[in-house]
Amino acid sequence: MNVIEKQTELTKSLYSINSGALKEFTSQQKANVEKYIETNKSFGERLPEVRDISGFLTLQREYGESLWANAKSAFETQNELVKTTFEETRDAFKLAMTTGEVSEEAAEGEAEAVPAKKAKTKAKPKAKKTAE
């Protein structure tokens, strides 16, 4: 592939990666909002059943724990999406930036096969003969 073809493929790959990630992120956000509304509805329905302060505090603690668990789960899935997207983007760039003749593994193998040059040592100056 020539450079223009590689750049075209890179652009297509990046568009595909970004549009897929955006669709997934949007669907995750929709699910998170629906979960939040359902949690509020569920605890709102239980609120009239509370008869004393300890029952209210227990319900409030359960509500807080439920919100925290939902938020934690949402952040974990979003982090995984971002991580996956970055990995896919990195792979797309690697593919676009490598030359067609030499792969990375071959280049690493050649680098190991070439022996290191020996350092040249300076010759010590010869002692001058003194006239006797």
Structure in words:
The structure is a single chain. The radius of gyration is 33 Å and the shape is rod-shaped. The chain has 3 helices and no strands. Helix 1 packs antiparallel against helix 2 (53-97). It is mainly α and 132 residues long. The chain has helices at residues 3-46, 53-97, 104-113.
Please describe the structure with a list of short key phrases separated by commas or semicolons.
mainly alpha, 132 residues, single chain
- Give the beta-strand count: 0
| Low-pLDDT sequence parts | 109-123
How far from one another are the termini?
Answer: 77 Å
State the helical fraction.
Answer: over 70%
Instruction: Compute the CA-based radius of gyration.
Output: 33 Å
Largest sheet: none
Coarse shape: rod-shaped
The helix-strand sequence is: HHH
Oligomer: single chain
The number of helices is 3
Structural class, from helix and strand content? mainly alpha
Average predicted confidence as pLDDT: 81
- Strand content range: under 5%
